[in-house]
Amino acid sequence: MRALRHIALSAFVCLSLAAPASAQTPPPVPAPTPAGAAVYIINPKDGDTLSSPFKVVFGLTGMGIAPAGVEKPNTGHHHLLIDTTLTADELKAPIPSDDKHKHFGGGQTETMLTLPPGQHTLQLVLGDWNHVPHVPPVMSKPITITVK
Ligand SMILES: [Cu+2]
After folding, report:
1. Ligand 1 center to 75 CA (angstroms)
2. Is the dihedral of CA 54, 146, 80, 116 positive or negative?
């Protein structure tokens, strides 16, 4: 009886040690969106024709700006999508970082952009401290501009 109890205990300890640490770390929980939150592009305007470099000004109401890495309720940082959009699956994960997905993790509210001549779309998406869009996502209406 005593030996059996010892074996059972050993088996339990082994199983506990075998569990990888990552399995115990829950995935990042996306931050909830407060009612009335909206993000929008102040400049340029939809349909504008301009030359590079040009300034893009970000607008946000109903929420605050916090730098990336700072977890604070009802805040986030801007992301500019250039000639792309986020799929339903992508909206549940950290926003990629490349030429089409620009992060403003320092809390910036404007940027200078240089784009090749032609038509382009711009869209803003707010991401939480972990770069994950809020639930529901706070996204601007996409605008189309023409670069001379
Ligand atoms: Cu980000």
Report:
1. 12
2. negative
Which protein residues have their CB within 5 A of the ion that is ligand 1? Answer: 103, 127, 131
* Segment 12-39, tens digit of pLDDT: 444 444 444 445 666 667 799 999 999 9
State which H helix or E strand residue 112 sits in: strand 110-113
d(CA 20, ligand 1 centre) in Å: 28
Q: Is the distance from CB of 64 to CB of 37 less than 8 angstroms?
A: no
Specify the DSSP element, H or E, that contains 18: helix 2-18
Burial class (CB in 10 A: 0-12, 13-18, 19+), 12: exposed
Distance CA 137, CA 127 (A): 8
Give exposure, 86-125, as e/b (b: 16+ Cβ within 10 Å). Answer: beeeebebebeeeeebbbbbeeeeeeebebeeeeeebbbb
Distance CA 31, CA 79 (A): 16
CA–CA dist 147, 120 (Å, integer): 8
Q: Over the stretch 81-105, which tens digit does the pLDDT of each residue have?
A: 999 999 999 999 999 999 999 999 9
